[in-house]
Design goal:
Layout lengths: L6 E9 L2 E9 L7 E10 L2 H9 L36 E9 L11 E4 L2 E6 L4 E3 L11 E5 H4 L9 E3 L6 H5 L1 H12 L11 E5 L15 E5 L12 E7 L3 H8 L2 E10 L9 E4 H6 L3 E5 L4 H6 L12 E5 L4 H11 L7 E6 L2 H17 L4 E5 L9 E6 L4 H10 E8 L9 E4 L1 H7 L2 E3 L6 H12 L9 E5 L4 H9 L6 E4 L9 E2 L3 H4 L1 H4 L9 H9 L3
Parallel strand pairs: 10-11, 10-12, 12-13, 13-15, 16-17, 16-19, 17-18, 19-20, 20-22, 23-24
Antiparallel strand pairs: 1-2, 3-4, 3-8, 3-24, 4-5, 5-9, 6-7, 14-21, 23-25
Helix pairs in contact: 4-8, 4-12, 8-9
Length: 535
């Protein structure tokens, strides 16, 4: 192992919409509980742009308040909450090159994939996260603390061991693929929260609803008294009524992972309802209901998860973008019987890229795949599973309008919390449309994707659009923000001078690397040739 330098090249967010390329950032020392990771590669995620815009207002940039001895946080040099400059980057593959004497789960030489959400470390509204309130991997070296990457409750490790076989790009792309996997695997709740707070508004019976799953507290008020509850949060809200104004006021009282059940009792909601669609994605809030009078009927149609079902008619809105390609590939390789898949975008060029990557796989697996430019051919009503990749509330609302009875709508795109849209809640209840959203992934999701790579079910590098070193980072993050990239961008921090290089331009700019591509797709040999350019 070569000697670790005292300074390094790093990307740092230093304020809202302020990012710098720092050629002289200090390399942190390794304490007794810590490990030095040398970064092989790190992907750029659209979530990085949200951190850039929000900075210290981002829920994952706030201080850790539980899950670790708070005095220990002062011992972790990479802990950067609040307004402290932070290195982003949460999609890396790294090599452990130094460990402290108290580290027990990992050793020098381990190659690891980082699961960025350290969920046992709680912040006020989220959790500790690599690349958010802890320095991430858009630098050459990063120090992590074993107390952060091992859950003390169950020993779950957030550094996942991987072999040397796949390329760094293939492994680094596991994290975004895992967020896709996680959106289908997240376990939903079809009953009131045991031990939670239940708010009942209006006249109606909840005794049978709470017979098997018992809340810790039940609060009952009339609709006219809702304003008196301002500032409170509830795990479940059951509203007997149909007033759009009351629904909008009650939605603000729904806590994280809360469920709102509207019991119409034969009434109708008179207009579309303004709802915070960002909270569906980031806070996992859910809406259900019934046209009848029994709230159990509303909870009953919540599915176990958001996964594909036999004979689903699937639409993926924004399918030609990086995440959309992943959703489309997951669908055609799912093995679920009888499904059909429609992938949409507004660009013929991007759609041709989608067709070239996913089309042969769909044909080989006998999955009907339709590629649609919705600027000229609008989608029609009748889909039973719709995923929206575009962070625009109006498009999520349109997705709901396209959904048939007993359908699932995945609001996958990360619309910031606090972003409202107009939604047909009456239609959602009548047609039993379950609208879900998820943020991040679990270790199990990452292991699922790793298994699919090892078994040859998927090749994560089909998502790779370009590579870059530190010199091209600003161009790369702008391409992500402006949605001009044709896929994912992988940063190799040790390549200081490499600019943003799309794979399609590799033959012109780096012919020795292009010669190692496989039909234009990334390979480990291409990666080795790329890294050789720095020597």
């Amino acid at each position: 192992m070569s000697e670790i330098p005292t300074t390094q090249h790093a990307i740092q967010i230093v304020g809202a919409d302020e990012v710098i390329v720092n050629p002289n950032k200090s390399v942190d020392p390794v304490g007794p509980h810590q490990m030095m990771l040398q970064v092989e590669a790190c992907g750029i995620c659209f979530s990085d742009t949200k951190l850039l815009h929000a900075f210290d207002n981002h829920p994952r940039k706030s201080e850790v308040v539980a899950g670790i001895d708070l005095d220990a946080l002062a011992e972790i040099p990479s802990y950067k909450p609040g307004s402290a400059p932070v290195v982003p980057g949460h999609e890396p593959v790294c090599r452990i090159i130094e460990v402290g004497e108290k580290v027990t789960h990992f050793k020098v030489g381990d190659r690891v994939l980082v699961q960025a959400d350290w969920k046992h470390l709680r912040t006020a509204k989220s959790n500790g996260a690599f690349g958010y309130n802890f320095d991430g991997a858009l630098q050459e070296y990063v120090v992590v603390d074993e107390r952060c990457v091992v859950n003390p409750a169950d020993g779950e490790e957030f550094l996942i061991h991987v072999s040397d076989a796949p390329s760094a790009a293939a492994v680094g792309l596991i994290e975004p693929w895992a967020t896709v996997e996680g959106s289908y695997a997240w376990a939903e709740r079809n009953h009131v929260a045991d031990g939670g707070r239940l708010l009942v508004v209006g006249e109606g019976c909840v005794e049978e609803l709470t017979a098997e799953h018992v809340p810790g507290e039940v609060v009952r008020v009339a609709a006219s008294e809702v304003a008196s509850l301002e500032g409170q949060e509830f795990d479940d809200i059951v509203y007997f009524g149909a007033s759009a104004e009351v629904i909008e006021a009650l939605a603000a009282l729904l806590g994280t992972r809360g469920t709102f059940c509207v019991v119409l009792g034969g009434e109708r909601i008179e207009r579309k309802v303004s709802l915070d669609i960002g909270r569906v994605h980031y806070d996992f809030i859910r809406f259900c209901g019934t046209t009848g009078s029994d709230p159990r009927e509303g909870y009953a149609w919540i599915p176990a998860n958001g996964d594909l079902r036999e004979n689903d008619k699937i639409a993926i809105i924004g399918a030609a973008g990086p995440m959309g390609q992943m959703h489309t590939m997951r669908a055609v390789t799912s093995g679920v019987a009888g499904i059909t898949v429609a992938g949409t975008d507004l660009s013929d060029e991007r759609l041709e890229g989608l067709r070239s990557v996913v089309g042969p796989v769909a044909e080989a697996r006998n999955v009907p795949l339709e590629i649609i430019n919705t600027s000229t051919t609008p989608l029609e009503y009748g889909y039973t599973h719709v995923s929206c990749m575009v962070p625009v509330p109006a498009l999520v609302s349109q997705a709901i309008d396209l959904a048939a009875e007993d359908s699932i709508v995945n609001a996958f795109a990360g619309i910031p919390a606090g972003t409202f849209g107009e939604f047909d809640l009456q239609g959602i209840i009548e047609r039993r449309i379950f609208v879900l959203g998820t943020s991040g992934s679990d270790v199990s999701d990452m292991r699922t994707v790793l298994r699919k790579i090892e078994e040859g079910i998927i090749d994560t590098t089909i998502s790779l659009y370009a590579v870059t070193g530190m010199a091209g980072f600003v161009d790369a993050i702008n391409a992500v923000m402006n949605r001009t990239s044709g896929g994912k961008i992988m940063v190799f921090p040790m390549l200081h001078d490499l600019g943003l290089t799309p794979l399609s331009e590799m033959a012109e700019k780096l012919p020795e690397v292009a010669a190692k591509l496989d039909n234009g797709l990334w390979t480990k040999a291409a990666e080795e040739a790329l890294l050789a350019t720095a020597k």
